[in-house]
Design brief:
Layout (H helix, E strand, L loop, with lengths): L1 H26 L8 E2 H8 L3 H13 L3 E3 L4 E4 L1 H13 L1 H17 L2 E8 L2 E8 L14 E2 L5 H9 L2 H10 L1 H5 L7 H14 L2 E4 L6 E10 L4 E10 H5 L3 H23 L8
Antiparallel strand pairs: 1-3, 2-3, 4-5, 4-9, 5-6, 7-8, 8-9
Helix pairs in contact: 2-3, 5-11, 6-9
């Protein structure tokens, strides 16, 4: 009995490991490198050629990859289908889109929403304001972990154990950023953000642009997100920061209330 259970667990773990290795192929397809050959991605990941070919074949079969010219591969149409499904079915997006559009219209600024998937921070929605700023980290683009208003707001909302793990796994990236160059420095900077209730960054992702962000956290719904405004330096220079943070806080509260109503959970903005 015990031997059977142990063997079943091992088989399950091996299957999960194989799946993770196959999905790692998709991580190679980036804005900088959108096209790969099977041989190149296999070499990049350090897989054997038979394994690499098998992964590419299976991913192509389910539409996550597609064949290009000259034996190359690109992301497939299934990715577009999944993105559409997220847009129409994700509770956080459903609760946020209208609120963000209203905030963009009221302020003229771009309004952005970021969240954490595993150890990746990603902008999941962006509402354009009349000011017409050109924020480069729009929907779907991965954010630097330790730079920018959304990332810093998200970091400040994380439980300490999760934060420590994230910092440890990305120590090289952290060391290159004064904000997070070591564990103690990161903690001190995040303590200040938590105390003030918002994060402000200037020119960290886009020259000439300023971001102001607040947390959107619902422990009951397992949601840790950040809501922010992106504006020009000129706009920021004349801005009433306290009033702006209040507007962001009210918008965050509305998003959480809509989530709670839709899911029947309890939501709160942490102090």
């Amino acid at each position: 009995m015990h031997g059977y259970a142990w063997g079943a667990d091992n088989n399950r773990n091996a299957a999960l490991s194989s799946l993770a290795r196959m999905l790692a192929v998709l991580d190679l397809f980036t804005e900088e490198a959108p096209v790969w050959t099977a041989e190149a991605l296999t070499a990049k990941l350090g897989y054997s050629l038979p394994t690499g070919y098998r992964y590419v074949r299976e991913l192509t079969g389910v539409g996550l990859l597609r064949r290009g010219a000259g034996g190359t591969y690109l992301l497939g149409s299934r990715v577009i289908e999944l993105d559409y499904q997220i847009r129409v079915a994700d509770p956080l997006l459903a609760a946020s889109a209208g609120v963000m559009s209203e905030l963009a219209e009221a302020t003229g600024c771009d309004v952005v929403l970021g969240t954490l998937y595993g150890e990746r921070m990603i902008t999941v929605h962006q509402a354009r304001g009349s000011e017409g700023v050109s924020a480069s980290y729009g929907r779907g683009r991965r954010l630097p972990l330790f730079r920018g208003m959304l990332s810093k707001t998200l970091l400040a909302a994380l439980p300490r154990a999760q934060l420590r793990k994230l910092h440890g796994h990305h120590a090289q990236e952290a060391a290159a950023v004064p904000f997070a160059r070591d564990w103690d420095t990161l903690l001190a900077n995040l303590k200040r953000i938590r105390s003030e209730g918002y994060a402000v960054t200037q020119g960290e992702l886009d020259p000439g642009l300023v971001g102001i962000g607040v947390p959107v956290v619902s422990r009951a719904d397992s949601i840790i997100a950040a809501l922010g405004l992106v504006m020009t330096r000129q706009r920021h220079a004349t801005l009433d920061v306290d009033k702006t943070v209040q507007l962001l806080g009210q918008a965050a509260a509305r998003i959480l209330a809509a989530l709670a109503q839709a899911q029947g959970g309890q939501a709160q903005v942490p102090g």
